[in-house]
Write a structure and sequence with these properties.
The N and C termini lie far apart (67 Å). A hairpin with a 2-residue loop joins strand 18 and strand 19. The strands form four sheets. The chain has a six-stranded mixed sheet, sandwiched between helices. The chain has three domains: 3-262, MetI-like (MetI-like fold, Orthogonal Bundle); 275-510, P-loop containing nucleotide triphosphate hydrolases (Rossmann fold); 537-771, P-loop containing nucleotide triphosphate hydrolases (Rossmann fold). By secondary structure, the chain is of the alpha/beta class. 47% of the residues lie in helices and 15% in strands.
Length: 774
């Protein structure tokens, strides 16, 4: 039996026994539950195993008859709350226009005391189980709706949902096929807590005499009606109370175990493992459980072995030390175990991962926090429903930090605005680089002694990345830094030592950073594109905003057939917003997008299917760009069906062709994203983008989270697509990628295209001449 199955045995066994009592009990009861068979509060005897209650009825018979009403009432109340709450939450989360209309009435219900609501409903309908079920269901709807709304907002920002919107899927299909299935772990976790509260409210309804009434047997009613005789015999109160408690605890444990072992929990966002769970792992404790590291050492790792839920060893480090004040870089290919090592340091391994060994972290020399951590994926690490200012204040409150000007100072130091307008933005209104810097600000609050950074420069433009490295150079003095990076050529100037991981093991270590290998700007550049007088796609005077903040202002440019135009600029300049406007994911406030001479509708939902096929997008975050619940085969097959109307036979042929085009093998078709490497996920995302035979391919930072080998493979695929005549809009902060891929470079600053003679005058004919053989 696997470890996962063993953890389910105890709560499942308790629930099975309770189910047997509830279902079979009425047939085994020796007496009628309403018959008076002896004196009141009689002691247990051979005739009455648990004694008698306050009027002389057999307690055992009432126990055997009394569970099904509580269960049925709880299930009925939960059905009401989840049916209404999920509907309200998904509606509000998927439509900002309807959000206020849905959530304001929901909020109004939360201010009504549930017992007052019960009295009103019981007076109107008459007291009884129906009144209690309806009251409890309505009273818990707001809390379910809020949880579902928050999770839905996060999902709506995911690349796989945006891809569905761009190809013209209906909101109903998105809700049923993508949002609701991915809410399952959230709903399961919520249900565990909700069952406890619902049983408590149903029980309280009976206590108040408005639910199940005499002489009907009911566990909750038995507790309240027999409490006066506890001194004579406790069994009429203790036994039903134990049954209720056992049910609540078993349900919570079972749901927790299911959620922890759910294969999709790690796909969306990593959850911090509990201290209790960590301390039970053999030989392993969180940083709070371990004594300080040896003198002069900030981080000490020994005999660390981390295993995935399937038992595969992903990290196996015999010994690793980071000296006080040292900056250590962890490098290696995708899947080498770098992020898992970082999560081990901060005590945040995903549920299902098992670890042995010892991790020690020294106290901060300044008396601040021990650890600050910046995860790799800013898009899933910020609460989508919490404003930036509120999120920063929450970190300050959680660590009991003084209320001073440190938040504004940190934001300014990291190159972010600190005004009220910026602090009131939601994460979805920030660029990827801005999200990354907000996370860094959160990690730096409280002056941690050790700072762990996972790909801190990914998603940042060159200037901002250099500024961030300058900030790290200042911050690292007196502080220990562990940084995971694929961007070693930029980070190297602040690194003291480099440790290379491969296959979860330390395979190399050096203290001197070797110069990065030069990149041939013409590498792979056998490209040609047709020099049409009219561009294939054209942007004319485009303007866009987020709320009242203007993001794009009068942007105009065109892309020729088979041409690769690179769009560069600082984080927050509006590059991703421009890409989303082209894909129909963000409605512009002015201007037009023109394809082959024809004006496109502002949103994908209003575009003709030919136009939705013509423009396709590869999203910035490969891990979030694919639905974690859907296999590669289902993901590609759906696009082929919607955009090209292919049946299963034709789709089979096309899917194999697409996999071949992105250099993947058919054995990956049955896998989900969580079973793929970063490079494989990005190539599947490219295959999905190519499934509609697009004329224009938008690539938004498609190599920012990939190692050099995986990035080279992805760029080779894009070059092959471009050679076949597809126009490409490339958004990138990586100068080497731009030099390799771009025929023209456009610079975006403060929402406007700015002239850059060194780049924008790079004529297609001069590039073609430069690429031609001597």
């Amino acid at each position: 039996m696997s470890t996962r199955a063993r953890r389910l045995v105890v709560p499942a066994t308790v629930l099975v026994l309770l189910a047997i009592i509830i279902v079979v009990g009425p047939f085994l009861a020796p007496y009628s539950p309403t018959a008076i068979v002896s004196v009141s509060f009689g002691a247990p005897s051979s005739s009455h195993w648990l004694g008698t209650d306050f009027v002389g009825r057999d307690v055992a018979s009432r126990i055997l008859h009394g569970g099904h009403r509580l269960v049925l009432m709880t299930v009925a109340a939960l059905s009401v709350s989840y049916a209404l709450g999920v509907l309200a939450g998904i509606t509000a989360g998927m439509s900002r226009r309807l959000d206020g209309w849905v959530m304001r009435p929901v909020d109004a219900v939360t201010v009504l005391p549930w017992f007052l609501l019960l009295v009103v409903i019981a007076t109107t309908m008459g007291k009884g189980p129906l009144a209690v079920c309806l009251t409890v269901g309505v009273a818990t709807v707001p809390w379910v709706a809020k949880v579902v709304r928050t999770a839905t907002i996060e999902l709506m920002d995911a690349g796989f949902v945006e891809a569905a919107i761009a190809r013209g899927e209906t909101l109903r299909w998105i809700a049923m096929a993508q949002v609701l299935p991915n809410l399952r772990p959230v709903l399961l976790a919520d249900a565990g807590i909700r069952v406890s509260g619902t049983i408590a409210l149903v029980t309280a309804g009976s206590f108040l005499g408005l639910g199940v009434t005499q002489p009907q047997p009911d566990w909750a009613l038995m507790v309240t009606e027999n409490k006066g005789g506890m001194a004579l015999t406790p069994w009429p109160v203790v036994v039903p109370a134990v049954c209720i408690a056992a049910m609540v605890v078993a349900v919570n444990l079972l749901v927790d175990r299911i959620v922890e072992s759910h294969p999709l929990v790690d796909g969306g966002s990593r959850r911090r493992g509990s201290r209790r769970g960590a301390s039970r792992r053999r030989g392993f404790g969180t940083v709070r459980d371990q004594p300080d590291a040896p003198p002069g050492v900030s981080v000490s790792v020994s005999d660390l072995v981390v295993s995935a839920p399937d038992g595969a060893v992903v990290v196996d480090i015999d010994e690793l030390e980071v000296r006080r004040g040292e900056t250590l870089a962890l490098v290696g290919p995708s899947g080498a175990g770098k992020t898992t090592t970082a999560l081990s340091l901060v005590g945040a391994l995903p549920p299902g991962f098992a670890a042995t060994g010892t991790v020690r972290v020294a106290d901060s020399p300044d008396g601040g926090r021990r650890l600050g951590y910046v995860p790799q994926d800013p898009g899933t690490s910020l609460n989508p429903s919490m404003r930036i200012g509120a999120a920063l204040r929450e970190v300050r409150r959680a660590h009991q930090l003084p209320r001073d000007g440190s938040i504004g100072d940190l934001l300014a130091e990291l190159g972010l605005p600190s005004d009220r307008e910026f602090l009131r933005r939601y994460p979805g209104q920030l660029s990827g680089g801005q999200q990354q810097r907000v996370l860094l600000a959160m990690a730096l609050l409280g002056s941690p002694g050790v700072l762990v950074l996972d790909e801190p420069t990914s998603g940042l433009d060159a200037d901002t990345a250099e500024e961030l490295v300058d900030v790290l150079d200042r911050l690292r003095r007196g502080r220990t830094v562990v940084v995971i990076t694929h961007d070693l050529h930029r980070i190297s100037r602040v690194v003291d030592r480099i440790v290379t991981l491969d296959g979860g093991r330390v395979t190399g270590e050096r203290s001197v950073v070797e110069p990065a290998a030069s990149v041939d700007p013409a590498a792979g550049a056998s490209r040609r594109f047709v020099l049409d007088d009219d561009p294939r796609v054209e942007v004319r005077g485009l303007a866009a905003s987020h709320g009242r903040a203007a993001i794009l202002r009068d942007v105009s440019f065109g892309i020729g057939r088979g041409e690769c135009v690179a769009l560069v600029g600082r984080s927050g300049a509006g590059k991703s917003t421009l890409a989303r406007c082209l894909a129909g994911l963000h409605a512009p406030t002015g201007g037009d997008v023109v394809l082959d001479g024809g004006r496109l509708a502002s949103t994908a939902a209003h575009r003709h299917i030919d136009h939705r096929r013509a423009i396709s997008m590869v999203y910035q975050n490969p891990r979030r760009s694919l639905d974690p619940r859907r296999t590669v085969d289902r993901e590609l097959r759906r696009v082929l069906r919607v955009l090209r109307g292919l049946d299963d036979t034709a789709a089979d042929r096309e899917i194999r062709s697409l996999l071949s085009a992105v250099h993947l093998t058919p054995d990956l078709l049955g896998r989900r994203p969580g079973e793929l490497s970063g490079g494989q996920i990005q190539r599947v995302a490219i295959a999905r983008a190519l499934a509609g035979n697009p004329e224009v391919l938008i690539c938004d930072e498609i190599t920012s989270s990939l190692d050099a080998v995986a990035a080279d493979a992805v760029l080779t695929i894009i070059e092959e697509v471009q050679t076949a005549g597809t126009s490409v809009l490339l958004i990138s902060h990586d100068a080497r990628t731009v030099r390799r891929m771009a025929d023209r470079v456009l610079t975006l600053a403060d929402g406007r295209l700015v002239p850059d003679p060194a780049e924008t005058t790079l004529d297609v004919r001069s590039r073609a001449a430069a690429d031609a053989p001597a």
